[in-house]
Structures are given as structure tokens and as C-alpha cells.
Amino acid sequence: MSSKKRSIGLENLSLIEEYYERWKKDSSSVPDDWNAFFEGFEFGYNESLKNGPIEVGKKKPISIDLKKQRAVYELINAYRTLGHYIANLDPLGFNRYEFDELKLGRFGLNQGDLDQEFDSGDLAGGGTRKLKEILDILKESYCSTLAVEFMHMDSFVQRQWIAQKIEGKFFKLKFSKEHKKQILYDLLKAELFEAFLHTRYVGQKRFSLEGCCTLIPMMDAVIENCPMHGIERIVIGMAHRGRLNFVTNILQQDYKVIFDEFSENYVPEGVLGDGDVRYHLGFEAALKTRSGEIVTVGLAPNPSHLEAVNPVVEGKARAWERRLLDTEKRKKVLPVLIHGDASFMGQGVVQETLNLSRLEGYKTGGTLHIIINNQIGFTTVPQDGRSTHHCTAVALMLAVPIFHVNGDDPLAAVFAVLTALEYRQVFGQDVVVDLIGYRKYGHNEGDEPSFTQPLLYKAIAQHPNISDVFLDQLIKTGDMTREEANEYRKIFVAELNQKMEESKAWIKSEEPPTLRQRMSCPRILDPVKTAVPLEELLYVGRCLVQEPPDFNLNPKVRKILAERKAMIEGKEPILIPFAEMLAFGTLLYEGIPVRLSGQDSRRGTFSQRHAVLYDTKAAKKYVPLEHIHPNQAIFCIYNSPLSEYSVLGFDYGYSLDYPEALIIWEAQYGDFVNGAQVIIDLYLVSSESKWGVTSNIVLLLPHGYEGQGPEHSSARVERFLQACAEDNIVVANCTTPANYFHILRRQVLRGFSKPLVLFTHKSLLRNPHCSSEISEFVQGTFEEVLADPQVHQPSPKVILCCGKVYYDLLEYRKSIGKMDVPLVRIEQLYPLHEKKLKEIISRYQPQSLVWCQEEPKNMGAWNYIFPKLQELFSLPLTYAGREASASTATGSLAYHRLEQQKLLSDAFKE
After folding, report:
1. DSSP characters over 426-444
2. How far is CA 799 from CA 86, 760, 764, 864, 907, in A?
3. How far apart are CA 383 and CA 389, in angstroms?
């Protein structure tokens, strides 16, 4: 294209329109310079070229250098795309960048063009402007104390929405005098609270918010604006940074409670177990906004393992959406995740949780992410902690807007978070606000940061408080006087001093702490009525085996339904997969919802479940468990992403706020539970003791040695048993379909919540010996210990076992003709039903006991069961199983068979 000046008239329009139409169909069909032009043209110029000559000002054609006009569009596009790189985002002024990509010369423009008028497309409303005015708008919109990444977003509508909110925003003019004062008061409360703690509790950890106290007016604004957006409930997850400040100044917890918790002798009232440190605890609040509406807020408890709370919050939010009947639009519940900058980029669970955001079984209508960006992680600076410019880069995967804001500009920060909130409600997607500040002290208040960052902390020590910076602005604009601010400080500090005196008086009156009573659940071994009337069982069973009308079934699936039909008609015994379906179906019939999620759970890893049927000729599916009765409860089953950490965290969170449902997470193979170990250790087995939080979640973990190698054999029974104490969880391994049926139903019928870790089987799914008659479902209950059904007389030796190895022992016993040796199965390992076990063993009057297991000696139940059996029985006890091993299993099928044969032989050895 020529650089000579010329009028853009009809003769040029035809060429431009031709190129534009070609570009819309295939961007590679036009030259590179035109491709770049239309990228900006689509966003900025839009329809103006289609309507004839460019008209601006008084609507008369103007003479424009076409090449430079195109350059201006490219410039606008470049600032929208790249402006955040040079924005004024660091309050300390360290991280300021030059960026050659945004220099005028890069676009063929120069200083001499600044007074030249150009069409500005739809920039800030569009129109003809001088280049210097265009630049001013771009810099103010995209390179000031607020910058936004949004040009990576797929949707033109969403990009346009963001641009209209940001460009030429002059957002400071949108704040009333009263709102500005409220923001200042929020800042003063936040900073004065931290300073008060710092002087009264010298050296004690509190994980101060100082340097990022703008979070407090931001969250205050979010809560105040929730009613106008139809939000009734907020579910929040955050780490320890600023948590004490948050619960007092946002959630309105009494300051006295915080002061109490700093006492060395503090023991929380009603503690169930060990308790936790003050900056990990959860909190519930019903907050009245200044307009009089109520917003309920739940702050989830969290461990120190950063970001682990993320999927838990999403699950809790999803449960509340179910409670509020908001499962279609998902606008009434707002998940808010408050992250650290280093952890947002460094912790893989962040990406896993982001990936859940639009999946059928896990979406919550979008999450508001706020990053408390200290620009440091413990002692690690950003250039050592990430490979990207911004800590938010992982969020680019969702193609959502990312707002970066200087924490020293509270108006910009509040504007950003309110815009983000509105975006979430309009588009139902995640959105990120990156609040960039600093950390006034070290990682904690006992840490010395100048050891590793002397220059940074010299600058921080000299930097004024955010409230001082903001107050100076308000004084200049006449919105506030220094006297008003000082009076507020005086009143607030007086309130803190009063609460401190109340705390001191309370602590003095308290008795010194004593050793706590151990946590327990006396009802945990009580029998529960789980049997189902025959009429109900038959009705549900028939519904589950009914072929859907006008549906093309896979022939193999039709055969499975026929087999199940024979089971419900009493012609064949019931196997494990159908027992599970009957457990789900009867609960649904009785009004109890069921949710199951996991990798390939709809069909089942071992092609055993087939809870969802697929038409072979049409894109439709049929879920038998949804077609039992018009008034049945809701059944949800989802194939999860290939993640254990986030999905287990999500389902655990769901179970916390929807305890009346049967909530199940299933591992594809039990070994894969390793990927969720953080959730197991820090939540599942300890949350009741730490936080008084109970869950009834069920973990289905396929477990058993079939020669499939070390990654498809062991669900690590030993790890769960090591974590068992104080009746915290239930650990079981059912060897009959009936027992499996009863334990699933017991989980929601027993009247209290405990997580259930249930080891399931692979080879037993179709084993005809592993079967139950219909009579076992309509009578009886779950049996923690099973006596040998074939041996009733005394025996010199009893073999005890757990799980699938029982059937191997049964077959081996038959092969060697020792039918008089009883095999006793422990179906529930923890809590061990000692009374029932002793009663069963006493029937045989043995002189010795054998514990047989498939797992290596250093794994499985041996180290757990050995001392218990020694304590219960004064009898010799021997071990029959694999030798201790570094790996869970061998990868050789031949060697596996040799090992299996040896452990069976050892069990019966005289």
C-alpha cells in the first residue's frame, strides 16, 4: 500500500470491503499488514467503512493518510492487548517496564503526528480525535493504576463489554463523596487493626494484610452490591494472609474473640478435638448491607497448604445453588477465592479448579478470584517463582478478563472488583482481580525479610500507608478533612482498647486449660436399619432393568440389563454392580439425593456400572436411576476431568453443605487416590477435629491384587488406617453385594456424618461366588465382621482377612481339602467392632490366629491390626502375606501368581 496521502472515497472502499470480506472468511487470505489492520478494525472501526466515505466531526469527508490511519487502529489494538505490561501497577515503583511494542515508531507514527486527527474507531465512544488525545485515552484506560487483560478472550461481545467499561472510564468521578469516605474508613480499620495487634502481641503470627489492605474496601463493596445483582450467598476461600482482618472488619466477628485467641491459655469453647490456629478457622455471618438487605457469607476453614481450599469452596457453592434452587442460571451464590500471588501460579490445584469452572458436574456460574499480590512468596521474588510476567497467567486458559490494579489506588481497586462482579453475573464466568501491593513485614511477623530482600524492605519501610495516600487525595478534592479522619481513628482505637480490656478480664477469670477429652462418636457402631421392603426393592429393580422406549441399545448393554432382570426376578443371585444400583435406586425412591463423580464413573472403569445408557444411532442418553418415580430425589452422575485433587476437594466441599445426600467420589483405580492426598490429610480425616466440620462423603477406591502392576493394585489401605483415630472416619472393604448395599444406605440413614473410605473390587465384580440373595437386601443390616458361613465347629486355627483375598483363600481351602479351617472377614477395619469380633472368634475356640493379606507386610492392614488382635486375644498370631516391599506390587504376572500362591499356602501352613 502507498504511504501517500489520499482521500478515502468510494473507489478505495470497494478494495477495503473486498479484503475485509476475504479476511472474515480466512485471515490468511490477505497480506499480513491487512491482517493486522483488520484485527484492530474489527474491534475499533466496525461498520464505518461499509457506510461510505469516512465522515467525522461535521460529517464531511476528510483526507487521511490511509497507512497512518491503519497504524492508528493497530496502535489502539496494541494498547488494548499489551498496555498492561507498562501500567503503573507497583505501589513501590520497582516494576516499571519499557515496551518497544507500544512505541509510536513501531507503527510508523512519530511525534509530528500527535496533532493530526484520526478516526478512533469505537475507542471511548468513537469519533475523530487528535493522535495525542487517542494516546491519552489509551494510557489512562490501559496503562494507569488499573490495567486489564482481555484481548485474549474468544468472545467479541465480552471484549466489547470490557472495553466499554474501561475506556475513557474516568472511574473516580463515579464515586460519591459518601462512598469515598467509606473506602477510607475501611482502610483505616484494616490498618489500625493490624497496627494494634502488632504492638499488643509482639512477634506473634497473624499474617498481616498491611500493604494490601485495599482488600477490605474491595470486599465491603462486593457485599454491598450483591443484592442488586441477585446474590444471596457468598462462599469464600482464602489462605491465612489477612484472614483475621477479614473476619473482623468484613464478617464482623467480635474483636474480643480475636484477642482471646492470642492468649497462651486460650481453649475455644465447645472444641471437639485438637482445634486449629486462629488464622485457619472458618466463619459464618449474616451481613446486613447499608441498604438493609441480608447477604449470608460463609468463610471456609482451610489448612496452611495454600490453594487447597479452592475446590472445596466450589463444591460448597454448588451445594448452596442446589439448596437455593438455582441450578439453571446460577446467579444467587457467589464463590470468592482470595489467593496469594506465588501460590496462584505455583500450586497446580489452581489450574485444576479453573478447569472445573465450565464442566457440567462442577460449574458454579463463575468465581470471583482476588489475588493478594505481595510480589513475593515467603522469601522468593517473582523472577524466581514463575516464568511469566504476571502471576495470573494460568487464568488465561479460561479466556476471561484479568484486572490488574495498584493497591495504592483504592478507587481503581473498588472499581475493578465491582466491574468483575458485574461481569460474573452477566456472563456466568470466572473473573480475576490482581490486587498488587506489598508485604509490610516478613512471611510472618517473627520473620526478618531484610535478610533476603534488603532493598525491597528499605523501600517498604519508607512507603506511606495506603490510607495516608488516599486521605491526601480526598483532602485535595474536598471530600474529606484530616480532622474527620483523625476523629475516626480515635473512635476506632478506643473500641479496640475496650475489647482488649474485656478480653483480659475474661482470660483472668478462666481456669487454666486441662487435657481435652478425646473426640469420639458413641453411636458409630450402632446397627442401622438399612433393609428395604421386598415390594420396594422389586419395584426399583424393575425400573432399573427396563429398556427405554425408542432407544437403540448396545447389544452388550442389553445383555447386562437382561442379566440384572434375572437377578431382580430371583432367578440369579445379585452381583456387586447391581447391588450398588439398588442401593442408589432405593435411596432415590425414599427421597434421598445421590451424587457420584469420578473418572469414567457413568460407565464404570471396569465396564460394570452402566448408570448412563447411550443410544447407538442417535446422540441421546438414558439414565435409569432418573426414571424410578415422579417424586424421587435427584440423581447426578458425572464423568470427572482427569484430576483427583480438585474433584475430591469439590465433592468433599459439596458434602459439607448438602449432608442429606449420598455424595460419592470414585477413583478410577484406588492407587490414583495418591493424587488427592492433600485433601485426605488436611480435610477428610482431620476437619472434624480441627474445625468441627463433618462430612459424609464416600470414597470408592478399587483395590485388589490381580497382577496388574504397582499402579493398579493398591489404594494404600495403610495410609488411611494410620490416620484413623477418635472415630474420625470409617474404613471398610465389603466382600458381599448385600454388605455393600447396606453400607451405602447406612451412610445417609445413620443420623450423623462420617467420611466413609470404601475399598471396592475389580475381579469380584463378576465373580459368581461374590453374590447375595434378594433375602439379604430385605432383611439384616451392615455386618462389620462376617463369620465363616461354612464352618461352625471349633478349630485349632482361625484365618482372619479383609477384602478380595477371602475368595482366594476360599478356593485354595477347597483345593487342599481343609474345609474345617474357618475364614473370618473383617468388613469394617475402622472403627473395629471388637465386641462382634471377639464373639465370632470365641465360637471357634482357636489356639492360634493367622492374619492373611495380599499387600506387602509394610502395607495393608497388618501394622494396624496386629496390636489390636494381640490386645483382644491372648493367642499366637502369625502373618501370611507378601514380604515388605518398596513398591506396592510386582509388574510381572508370573511373579504375582507365585507370590499369591505362597501367601495362601502360608495361611494354611501348620
Report:
1. HH---EEEEEE---SSSSS
2. 73, 21, 20, 17, 7
3. 8
Query: For residue 799, what are the β-bridge partners?
Result: 823, 850
- Terminal-residue alpha carbon distance, the chain: 97
Which grid cell sits at 386?
514463575
CA contacts within 13 A on the Cβ side of 708: 14
pLDDT at 507 over 90: no
Cell of 461: 519501610
In tens, the pLDDT along 88-139 reads: 999 998 877 778 889 999 999 999 999 999 999 999 988 999 999 999 999 9
CA distances from 414 to 180, 287, 320, 385, 682 (A): 10, 19, 27, 28, 34
Residues 6+ apart with CB under 8 A from 478: none
Cell of 570: 430371583
Tell me the β-bridge partners of 627. none
Q: Please report, for the chain, how many H helices and E strands are present, in that order.
A: 29, 28
Cβ partners under 8 Å of residue 560, min gap 6: 610
Beta bridge mates, 636: 595
Residue 296, H or E segment = strand 294-299
Neighbouring C-beta atoms of residue 350, cutoff 10 Å = 22
Q: Specify the 3-state DSSP secondary structure of 596.
A: strand
Cell digits of residue 564:
440384572
- Reported pTM: 0.91
Q: Which of 746, 762, 597, 596 is nearest to 671 (CA)?
A: 762
What pLDDT digit, counting tens, does each position of 195-207 carry? Answer: 999 888 877 877 8
List 284's β-bridge partners, or say none: 298
Phi, psi of 165 (to 5 degrees): -75, -30
* Rounded CA separation 612/350 (Å): 30
Within 8 A by CB and 6+ apart from 225, the residues are 418, 421
Q: Give the SS3 label for residue 672.
A: helix
Extended beta strands in 447-502, E state = none
- Dihedral sign computed on CA atoms, order 7, 10, 15, 19: positive
Rounded CA-CA distance 709/833 in Å is 33
Give the C-alpha separation, 484 to 905, whole Å.
87
| Dist. CA 165–CA 160, nearest whole Å | 9
How far apart CA 784 and CA 842 sit, in angstroms, is: 16
* pLDDT tier, 62 (very low <50, low <70, confident <90, very high otherwise): very low
- Grid coordinates 499480590 are at which residue? 373
Q: What is the mean pLDDT of residues 624-653?
A: 97
